[in-house]
């Protein structure tokens, strides 16, 4: 990972990554500026070999049932530790991707295409075609594992996409502050930005906090 990619992580994610890379010297908490934790992680051998999760399916604006179903089949629901099954971040060295269960995907597909004759067998056929490197499914990557039933935890139930009327993405927040992305990352690494909400790997900043007079003039 690069310095800029690490700056996109929350403190909790940085701590998890640090402890995964240095199990002999784990950190329970971090009260200093995030930039110092980023510097500490950058000094650990092997951090450069860790890659952020890549897209698992291509952009497809056709609106077809096939594109929608395949995107859901390739969506990563969460990441688990390959050894003990505990939920971890995508950046954990032992992370294994877990997909959405077939019944939930079928429910979503039928809700969007109520007249389609779709079944779990159809979804499995799509998976076989994706796994066989069929050129018609180029760009699709299946998760490492798919559970029979979706795991519901209190944290997962509370998770919801933030209102775009009330939140900025990183790029939008940088533009609102009149900063380049490099300057935005630098300010965030020094703890000079509000703590963001992270959903599905993306950071969201409250507009009210970004647009506050004190922050805009900082």
UniProtKB/TrEMBL annotation:
Organism: Yoonia maricola
Span list, region Disordered: 144-167
Name of the protein in question: Helix-turn-helix protein
Lineage top rank: taxon: Bacteria
Positions with biased composition (Basic and acidic residues): 152-167
